[in-house]
Specification:
This protein has a single domain, classed as Growth Hormone, Chain: A (Up-down Bundle), CATH 1.20.1250.20. It has 16 helices and no strands. The protein has helices at about 5-10, 15-45, 50-75, 80-105, 110-135, 145-175, 180-205, 215-230, 230-250, 250-255, 255-260, 265-290, 295-315, 320-350, 350-385, 385-405. Helix 3 (about 50-75) runs antiparallel to helix 15, helix 11 packs across helix 12 (about 265-290) and helix 15 crosses helix 16 (about 385-405).
Length: about 425
């Protein structure tokens, strides 16, 4: 790769604050994904039910659905960095609490569900602050690159985190410890990872600029909703994001089920499957980082989403592990191309003084689709099996992409 192409791919790293933020976020994300893998395995071990996997995902995202819009208003009114730091402290506390419960051998499924809800509450306020902070760290011309590089850190973590979970299981087994103690170590390490991101957030030079004129919380929220309602392309992108997460993310939620019931394997195979999906996502994010801001981004997102749906159907039908690995790699790449492209377009459209509220509405749709999709898919998985549910979801994703390709609503031309 030429030096010019490399500079283009990593343009956002020329900004000091973005580099600092990226390092802290990546460290914390690695811990978070290690906990996600361990927590999903703990849930399926305790309950033997895909319904509880869906319920756990639902309860973590429910507070986001309920409070993200308020979080978006606060992101426009308050110091985004301070709000984000407070969110990290709460999430650190929930991880530490789960580690203590595991250490005392008293953890029950309701403990996990409650702690997931508290984590979701913190993310409801931290998420809009984080998403609206990124454009403040780089120039507008480098924003798509920054969004893609931010996706890369998230997905590098999605590779490393599950691999560390699998490595922890292996090492603890060799040292004579059981799976429960290995999972406990994952929860404790995630709690420690928040120390890094809190420290890097404190190092940022970005200053909070209070809004020129601010009304009450309710009025600010109404103005934000009205702004999105009167922009047809924003509405369309938000609907597209909700459909993508509602139908497309359940494949990740049910990977423990595929590991146990389809491939008749253990936690090592589960972390292996997660890693292939994460590696694909890193590749997809690198592609978007290299492209930067390009013509017909909306059309590209729709075409890739249709491909994503077909890949999901293929994975659900596969009974060969190496083929499933390949399919997961390409599903990860496709999902990240759709996600990074849509997120970049929304952030480019939204002005700074409205960005917190616009991104909170986007997050409500994007993050809200995950728990609802996981909960409903989890219920139907108990009736007709996870592979059949995933196949149906993939086919519906193709239908959604085809609708926007035909009707557009401003997406195809973006």
């Amino acid at each position: 790769m030429s030096a010019r192409a490399t500079r283009r791919m990593f343009a956002a790293f020329t900004y000091r604050d973005f580099r600092v933020q990226w390092f802290g976020a990546c460290t914390s994300s690695i811990g978070t994904w290690m906990q996600i893998a361990a927590q999903n395995w703990l849930v399926i071990t305790l309950t033997k039910s895909p319904l509880y996997l869906g319920l756990d995902a639902f309860l973590q995202q429910l507070p986001i659905m309920l409070f993200t819009l308020i979080g978006g208003v606060l992101a426009d009114r308050r110091d985004r960095r301070r709000t984000l730091i407070a969110s990290q402290y709460v999430q650190m506390a929930t991880s530490a609490a789960l580690a203590v419960l595991m250490y005392l051998h008293v953890v029950q499924i309701w403990h996990i569900l409650v702690l997931s809800s508290v984590t979701g509450f913190a993310q409801a306020f931290g998420g809009p602050a984080y998403q609206s902070l990124i454009p403040s760290l780089v120039d507008k011309k480098d924003l798509p690159n920054a969004v893609a590089l931010n996706s890369i850190q998230f997905n590098v973590a999605r590779v490393i985190g599950p691999l560390l979970f699998g490595l922890t299981l292996t090492l603890f087994g060799q040292w004579g410890y059981d799976e429960a103690q290995a999972m406990n170590a994952c929860f404790a390490l995630n709690a420690l990872s928040f120390v890094v991101v809190i420290n890097t957030l404190m190092m940022l030079h970005v200053k909070h600029i209070p809004p020129a004129a601010s009304k009450g919380m309710r009025d600010d929220l109404r103005i934000g909703l009205s702004y999105v309602r009167n922009h047809s392309s924003l509405k369309a992108f938000i609907v597209l994001a909700a459909a993508t997460t509602f139908l497309g993310f359940s494949v990740l939620t049910f990977l423990p089920v595929f590991a146990q019931q389809v491939f008749h394997a253990g936690a090592g195979t589960y972390s292996h499957l997660l890693a292939f999906s994460g590696i694909g996502s890193v590749v997809g994010a690198l592609i978007i980082a290299w492209l930067g801001k390009f013509n017909r981004m909306g059309l590209t997102a729709l075409i890739v989403q249709a491909i994503y749906g077909l890949l999901i159907v293929g994975f659900a039908m596969s009974r060969v592990l190496w083929l499933s690995d390949i399919l997961l790699f390409f599903t990860g790449a496709a999902l990240m191309i759709v996600f990074s492209t849509v997120t970049s377009l929304i952030q480019l459209i939204a002005p700074n003084e409205m960005r917190g509220r616009v991104m909170s509405i986007y997050m409500l749709a994007f993050r809200g689709g995950m728990p609802l999709g996981s909960l409903i898919s989890g219920y139907f998985a108990t009736l007709i099996g996870a592979p059949m549910v995933i196949s149906i979801n993939g086919a519906l994703l193709v239908v959604v992409a085809a609708y926007f390709l035909v009707r557009s609503h401003g997406v195809r031309e973006a």
